[in-house]
Design goal:
The chain has four helices and 27 strands. By secondary structure, the chain is mainly beta. The strands form six sheets. A six-stranded mixed beta sheet has the order 1-2-20-19-18-17. The protein has a five-stranded mixed beta sheet with strand order 3-24-23-22-21, with no helix packed on it. A four-stranded antiparallel beta sheet has the order 4-27-26-25. Strand 22 and strand 23 form a beta hairpin. It is globular.
Length: 369
């Protein structure tokens, strides 16, 4: 049966009112205040995603190839370069272990420590905080050269914790200068390290950092800190909060968020000892087109994937499942080209290497439709 014009007009008004109400609720949950987006993670739509076995790459596990947590991953050709602890281990696309990049030592072609690493084309770059040098190898592991960073950067007795290379030069995540002075979180320099400038707007508050604390996204440089659910964006020589990811009742209580990072860590550890999981610990930010991915600890003791549209700032949470009940997602995420990489551990083989979860990013996102 059809509608007359009066009925149709009334129905259109009702539909418009419903759409407007939903829009207002969405704006209330994810709102912008003075340039800072407030994202309500607790109210985000949850998408259940089952990973097919074909997406799992089991990394060969031997005494020589052992890895624990994955700090970073780069793919060059048919090999994966994985930073874990004090090693960069190389695996084939079939999961077989190939070799390590470099070795620890005091020689010019060695490193004392791996603070972070990245690939620039076919070149493997390892930043050694202990010797303040950038040690570079080719993709076969052959030593190329060593770039010595100038002493006392950005000021006396303060060197970068981590180094990231951009087209314009380098971004430094600085080390903590102590309570008696203020050191900016970030500095920028040109390719020749001639002009080292602080990024004003935020200073280091502790010596704790992780080797994935910067996400390079086109011209944007995003920065995060441990157990701080605010993501910062670097604009020119300044830094400002970009978005606050609110975990709601499952996250840290407000009074705990006002503590220093060590107080927040103590609260989380005490909560875990009582069997209560605290949602948060967001890290491994990675960008794909206009979408920002990250992982976080959820309130069930697992790891979920957050996906935020950087245009609308809408958010979805992906709850990852596997056909094998012994597999569980662990903190790691990297997007390289069209591929998204996660990591999964096998509870039945806790001493073995984690498996890589490799999926097409478009297919990953379409699973939420």
């Amino acid at each position: 049966m059809g509608y007359d014009k009066k009925d149709l007009k009334m129905k259109m008004k009702s539909l418009f009112a419903i759409a407007l109400a939903l829009f207002c609720v969405s704006c209330e949950r994810n709102r912008k205040e003075g340039g800072l987006y407030h994202i309500d993670v607790g109210s985000a739509r949850v998408v259940a995603l089952e990973v097919p076995d074909s997406a799992l790459l089991r990394l060969e596990s031997t005494d020589k190839s052992a890895i624990s947590d994955i700090c970073n991953l780069e793919r060059i050709g048919e090999r994966y370069y994985i930073h874990s602890g004090g090693n960069v281990r190389v695996f084939g696309t079939d999961g077989r272990y190939c070799f390590d990049i470099g070795s620890m030592g005091k020689a010019s072609n060695e490193y004392l420590d791996i603070s972070n690493f990245y690939a620039k084309g076919d070149t493997i770059c390892i930043y050694d905080f202990m010797s303040r040098g950038l040690v570079r190898y080719d993709s076969e592991g052959h030593f190329l050269d060593r770039v010595e960073l100038p002493a006392n950067m950005p000021e006396e007795n303060v060197g970068p914790n981590h180094v990231y290379e951009t087209e314009a030069g380098y971004v430094f995540v600085n080390s903590y200068g102590g309570d008696y002075r203020s050191v900016t979180c970030l500095s920028k320099t040109d390719n020749a390290f001639k002009s080292i400038l602080p990024v004003e707007g935020r200073c280091m508050s502790s010596g704790l950092s992780f080797p994935d604390d910067v996400c390079l996204c086109g011209d944007n440089v995003f920065y995060w800190e441990p157990l701080c659910d605010t993501l910062f964006v670097c604009e020119g020589q300044g830094i400002r909060p970009y978005c606050h990811l609110d975990m709601g009742k499952d996250g840290l209580p407000y009074d705990v968020t006002q503590m220093d990072v060590y107080g927040r860590i103590d609260y989380v550890n005490r909560s875990h000892s009582r069997g209560k999981w605290v949602a948060g610990a967001i890290r491994y930010y990675s960008a794909f087109c206009d979408t920002l991915f990250f992982v976080f600890n959820d309130s069930r003791g697992g790891v979920s994937v957050g996906v935020m549209d950087m245009k609308t700032h809408g958010l979805e949470v992906y709850d990852i499942h596997y056909k094998s009940s012994s597999l569980k997602t662990v903190p790691f995420l990297k997007i390289d080209g069209n591929d998204i990489y996660l990591a999964a551990e096998d509870a039945d083989n806790p001493d073995g290497n984690p498996s890589l979860v490799i999926m097409d990013a478009d297919a990953f996102l379409s699973s939420g439709n």
